Amino acid sequence: MQTREALGRSHGGFSTKIHLRCEGNGLPITFLLMVGECHEAVVFERLMEQGVVKRAGAGRPRLRPKRVSGDKAYSSGKIRRYLRRRGIRITIPRKANERHRGQFDKALYRQRNRVERCFNRPKQYRRIATRYEKQADNYLAMLTIASILLWL
Predict the structure, then answer these.
(1) More confident site: 13 or 70
(2) Distance (Å, whole) CA 107 – CA 148
(3) Looking at the chain, which terminus has fewer C-beta neighbours within 10 angstroms, N or C?
(4) Taking CA 45 as the corner, what is the angle to CA 42 and CA 46, rounded to the nearest 5 degrees?
(5) How buried is 82 (Cβ within 10 angstroms: 0-12 exposed, 13-18 middle, 19+ buried)?
(6) Mind listing the pLDDT tens digit for each residue in 47-84?
(7) Separation in Å, CA 49 to CA 9, 53, 71
(8) Which CATH number fits domain 8-151: 2.40.128, 3.30.70, 3.30.420, 2.40.160?
């Protein structure tokens, strides 16, 4: 699905969609580039299989997080089944047209602003915000450099 330029149509116009996974403090762990019209459920599993989270004490880094927070775009049965099978807790609001309603912790969902801030921080670099790079590999390299600078 990922093309050489990773450009496609979406509601915002002709663009690239950045799928980002960040840790609890709002620093990026890994990201994927997809064409603009690609849905979140298509790349969610690949995104979750990449990157590790350092443990507080000694031991190997964790591949799986304890909890996943996301917006309504990530509210699909496929994503929820994937997370439940792996024992990962879910903080994703349900869409209005979904049948099943469950408990939802609004206090935990408010902490998702860290993810939104993590999206905005790399976009402070003009090269990323305006997508100067035509090739997806070059754009991904610029995102990697920006993420490294955020970690330093």
Answers:
(1) 70
(2) 30
(3) C
(4) 90
(5) middle
(6) 888 888 777 788 888 788 888 888 888 888 889 899 99
(7) 27, 12, 19
(8) 3.30.420
- The residue whose two tokens read 């995102």 is 143
Neighbour tally for 139: CB within 10 Å: 21
> For position 2, what pLDDT does the model report?
44
Closest CA relative to residue 79, chosen from 19, 1, 2: 19
pLDDT for res 10 = 58
Give the residue extent of every domain in the chain.
8-151
At 30, give phi and psi (nearest 5°): -155, 160
Question: What are the structure tokens assigned to 10, written together?
Answer: 């979406």
Q: Which amino acid is at 108?
A: L
User: What is the residue-wise DSSP string for 120-142?
Assistant: HTGGGSHHHHTT---SHHHHHHH
